[in-house]
Amino acid sequence: MNPEARRGLMLVSPPLIYALLLLAVPLAAIMLFSFWTQDFVTVDTTFTLQNYREIWEEPIYGLLLQRSIFVSGTVTLVTVLLAFPIAYYISFYVDPKRKSLWLFLITIPFWTSYLIRVFLWKVILGYNGVVNSGLIGAGIIDEPLTFILYNLNAVVITLAHAFAPFAVLPIFVALEKIDRSLLEASQDLGEGRVMTFFRVTLPQAMPGVAAALVIVSIPTVGDYVTPELMGGAGGKLIANMIQTQFLQLNNAPLGAALALVAMAAIVSALLVLYAQGKLLIYIYQVLSGTRPVIEIIFLCFTAVFLQVLVASTLLRGLSGGLGSGAAFFAGLVLYSIAVLLLLRGRRG
Questions:
Q1: Higher-confidence residue: 93 or 346?
Q2: By CB distance 3.0 to 4.6 Å, which of 203, 208, 324, 328 could disulfide with 320?
């Protein structure tokens, strides 16, 4: 081994060992545990698929997984839609000398405990909280609103606020990398600001948007504190069931199996989303220049709407038990892989 390769190996080894010890080893342990069984105290290390069979057959797990994917998707969509204008404003309209200050202000919520922020939202959204008191004082409502706390609405609001900085930062980084001369060239060629945004700015900002989607969607599926405090009886997610299996029912193998199923579900959902995004970009690039831009955008949004219908069908299937929707979900994943293979080597 030459000196440069040895030096590179020495530089890479510490973080690689760190990743293996803190990421790969726990994940392998969870995977191993999922094939065991536990009778409250005694752990039976005999290899079995009983935990996965129970997850497959019991409707409650499918319902919780459906609700978790729905909440994760909603939070991700709301967060990215709200984060993009903020990141865009900071990147294009804030003085370069003040951008660091703005980013610093965005990270201020991290100065306080996550638990404290959740309790603050309980105060804001409570029956006699800030929102209800303000609306009653303004004469807009006669009695406090009850649909903004202890349900999925409160969970979505709290999670969207908690993960907003995670979406702003990657989008801002992507926008900062855009060559401003490309925007000027687009306008010199006769494009307006709106078409310049859709044809130049947005495509180049998509890596940041994709990073924000991943960064927000994955941890929201595994969050159990917010649903526990804000969701009420009807706002529990799959993470709450995992926490219950580990800490209350003392059934770590079933909790481990649930964790792996949830992980596989969110990774598969992201794969489907990625494939559909690539397909929409390809459609846009193929039709660009041959059809009016408005018509192309309409076709792309129609394709998105069809994908939403497919996703809602999947979620309805999962509500009847994991097994009733798993086959369709597997077909959707295989379809997405086929789309990626077909688009491989093509434009976009």
A1: 93
A2: 324
